[in-house]
Design brief:
Chain lengths: ~230, ~210
Amino acid sequence: MAAYMSASRLEHAFSTNDFVPEWAQEEVSTGTTIMAVEFNGGVVIGADSRTTTGAYIANRVTDKLTPIHDHIFCCRSGSAADTQAVADAVTYQLGFHSIELDEPPLVETAANLFKQMCYRYREELMAGIIVAGWDKRKGGQVYTVPMGGMIVRQPVSVGGSGSSYIYGFMDSNYKPGMTKEECLHFCTQALALAMERDGSSGGVARLAAITEEGLERRVVLGNQLPKFSNA
Amino acid sequence: MDSQIKGVSTGTTILAVTFNGGVIIGSDSRASIGGYYVSSKTINKLIQVHDRIFCCIAGSLADAQVVTKAAKFQISFHSIQMESPPLVKAAASVLKELCYNNKEELQAGFITAGWDRKKGPQVYTVALGGMLLSQPFTIGGSGSTYIYGYADAKYKPDMSKEECLQFATNALALAMGRDNVSGGVAHLVVITEEGVEHVVIPGDKLPKFHDE
């Protein structure tokens, strides 16, 4: 499950290197919360905006929703370097494939390209990816490619370190047949809940809705996120 | 983490929630060894330490049994000396002392919930190292990770007994659905001034969610 991956692979409680500050010794990780939901006519994807190197927040306004093609996006979690590299490679491959086909590519194709790469290099990579988009054949689709390189299509999927905390919320609040606005609301709430509990997730909530018409991006700033605590 | 406990562990989901007039304490019923073998499908993790005070255990089952036995004795002795029912805080404190003073050897955490005349319904958490904290509601055990979002979103202060039962049942069902070391039946105990009511919900009667 993608959920178990947040802590860096290099866990040193007491590091012996005094020449480099502690925050520069850990690799950059998108310990994160990402999610995607299918609806009739498209998908809604969402992510938080925090990238950490150990305890330091390297980027508090990260965009983890990466376009792979006009109607296909991926949500990245795990090592920032690994996911950027894989996403770049898949973007190239998919663009080439689409030109050869003379047609927009299928979401399933993009997801399988991710899977091939993540599976082949599973020992070297630390990448949990959710691929989501719209195509003419099957409409809105969400495919999850967690660490290890499995692929499975799900109507709703969450990933990253913050996802553990919202499985219960997702199971109880997701209903098939939601509209685009309901999906956006559901994602905003889920991301807010995860960002509240997970130290590696935070910042702003980035959302995007992908439909036949195109792409609509939204940002929900920290102070505008729904509040759930009683404090 | 629960999964590194040697021997039988209650990789588990436990919770306690206050409502208007009482408190509900609940748990699943699975005990496992190393997360691979279910050593009991029907264990009761809700231990009564006094008439209106219950506690539930997470972590090493052996440690938890020994600590609750010692705590039960100390609390009843204290209650006899004081000639009145013990305060929930006193019971929680007894557990805390045991956990804090033996923190190197023990691997068990507790949730104490109950009703007393002074403050009414209360919930206390005693964490692994011996920290004591009072909260309106709390969740614990390995399965609790999956329901933090649900609990944060759905809890309201001053619920009715029925709303609270629904909240606790749903939370346990959701956690048991995602955590492989939580499962079996849902045990719930409702504690009020009037008395104590034990509700058991078998696995097939638990609420089902969209993908089941």
